[in-house]
Design goal:
The chain is mainly alpha-helical and 320 residues long. A 4-stranded antiparallel sheet has the order 1-4-3-2. It is elongated and about 100 Å long.
């Protein structure tokens, strides 16, 4: 993929801070700076590689590029307005591909990396940049910079001279110059001193280490959330079981009749329901002190239906 910007909008030195070579390179051709981004799939390790390109699993064209290419291209003008997230993703691509020395410092970290707009999200997916790498890189600046208010724009415009305003309007109205607006936006954001990563820049090695720590932290959070989900599910099931047992106390025989009816179906579709009732009856028997009577009746029931192998396996696995 090759993207280009007017050199007046994106100086070559600035582009090379983020595109040092390898997977992301920057060069100047005439009045333009060209950034080349390369993400090969030579090993075939990316399962969704074909989904990103214009081919299906059989190599047939699909036309998908008509959707994702314009989306990625929409991120390009933001760079001229001072948003360096696209170029920072290019630097992460170099890091991911092993193109950078471990002691190399990272370039300025742009705000909002943790909240990529759709075009940049499409670009990250296209380049197959690891999501954990992006998240770890974004941790020093986890939230996007606040949107400038109309008042802030108005106050900044008041600082421009009449000649500057006239020149911009003349370029826009007479020359129909598409770079006028991005240039004004870049100057505005530069005047606001956008936030950068706090403290000294991290090295490539430090950032790689932070990815491992970030991944481990995310895994721990996922495991904790899963454990809490299972605990909540158990609590809901125990509460539901107590409600069933409370209702069963009035007429346990009706519950035994329900077991018989569910076992009677030849398809076995109601076996799980029968096992659930038997489990409830076992708890009720324990609570009421009638455990031996339940045990004997349960033994006779299994003996009566010993030919139903599916039922017997289910009782072995989940029964009382």
């Amino acid at each position: 993929m090759i993207l280009r910007w007017p050199a007046a909008q994106l100086p070559l030195d600035e582009a090379r801070r983020y595109c040092p070579g390898g997977a992301a390179t920057a060069r100047q051709h005439g009045e333009y700076v060209l950034v080349t981004l390369v993400s090969d799939d030579e090993d075939g390790e990316c399962d969704d590689f074909n989904d990103l390109f214009d081919f299906d699993d059989w190599g047939e064209e699909t036309g998908r590029e008509e959707r994702w290419l314009p989306s990625i291209a929409a991120a390009r003008p933001d760079v001229t307005a001072g948003d360096m997230r696209l170029l920072y993703l290019a630097w992460l691509l170099c890091l991911q591909n092993g193109d950078l020395d471990g002691a190399a410092p990272e370039p300025p970290l742009p705000a909002g990396l943790a909240h990529l707009p759709e075009p940049l999200g499409e670009l990250a997916a296209f380049l197959r940049i690891d999501r954990d790498l992006i998240s770890a890189a974004a941790e020093p600046l986890p939230t996007p910079a606040p949107q400038a208010s109309r008042t802030a724009w108005k106050d900044w415009l008041a600082t421009l001279t009449h000649d500057e305003k006239d020149a911009a309007l003349l370029q826009l109205l007479h020359g129909n110059d598409p770079q006028v607006i991005p240039d004004l936006r870049r100057r505005f954001h530069a005047s606001r001193s956008p936030a950068a990563a706090p403290g000294p820049a991290r090295t490539v090695t430090e950032l790689r280490d932070s990815v491992l720590a970030h991944t481990a932290c995310c895994l721990a959070r996922e495991q904790q959330a899963e454990a809490e989900h299972r605990h909540a599910a158990r609590q809901r099931e125990e509460a539901a079981q107590q409600r069933r047992i409370s209702a069963m106390k009035a007429d346990p025989e009706a519950a035994w009749t329900g077991v018989t009816q569910k076992i009677a179906y030849r398809t076995g579709r109601d076996y799980p329901g029968a096992v659930q009732i038997l489990n409830d009856l076992a708890i009720l028997a324990e609570q009421s002190g009638t455990g031996p009577a339940f045990t004997e009746r349960y033994r006779r029931l299994r003996e009566e239906h010993r030919a139903k192998k599916a039922l017997q396996r289910l009782l072995d696995d989940s029964g009382p």
